Amino acid sequence: MEELISMPNHSLIAQSMSCAEAKVNTNGDGFGIGWYGEKEEPGLYRDTQPAWGDENLLSIARQVKSPLFFAHVRASTGTATSRSNSHPFAVGKFMFMHNGQVGEYGRIRREIESLINDDFYRYRQGTTDSEALFLAMLSHGLDIDPVGAVQRVLTKTLEIMMRNEVNAPLRVAMALTDGERLYAIRCSSDRIVPSLYYRLHDRNLSVVSEPLEKGGQGWHEVPCGHIMVYGGDNAPCFIPLDIPDEFCKVA
After folding, report:
1. Do 128 and 222 meet the contact criterion of CB atoms below 8 Å apart?
2. Per-residue DSSP letter, 98
3. pTM of the prediction?
4. Which DSSP state fits 92?
5. What is the pLDDT of residues 83-104, one digit of tens each?
């Protein structure tokens, strides 16, 4: 995993200290990695300190090889810095992480959490909007129809925000997987869309918030308002989000 996490000149650890395209320059409110190995369910390692200060992360990344893994550095949008609020999140075979925000989440948190059914609310460990969206997607059929579950939850979230006259935007750069297929989502309800890039080389797909090499050669933006789906094929496919225009004005 070190080939993406620590070795490139603009690696994830380097981005945690100084990023170019995020809302804030540093991402020091915790980090996490999640990976698939011999079992169906992913393993997780998360902590509250900055990624650049954890020697264990460097050691794990140097030793662990995985066909599919997530890595995340966090800049909090208001909730506490804790292990339970650090990405990625995992339930069963599914794993999820998110950059962005649900605008004025503290004011509408109860309504957002009402999208989570009892079967999945028991997995609620933290207080973030990101984990709430993940559990809501699981509650809305993620295991059967991943694309439909994402669209239903984003639409209902936007409806809640509109009903409560929330002025702050919904911003989404998400990645989720069932261990076999990867889904990457990029959209926003205003014109500031979180960055998300991909690169395919020999059927190996990398998806990142910022290119891992300064100059960004070979990287392509995930189109705004789309879900990118990849399962080891020759190329990823891009599915437009079916969200009403009056709610989601993607750039």
Report:
1. no
2. E
3. 0.91
4. T
5. 899 999 999 999 999 999 999 9
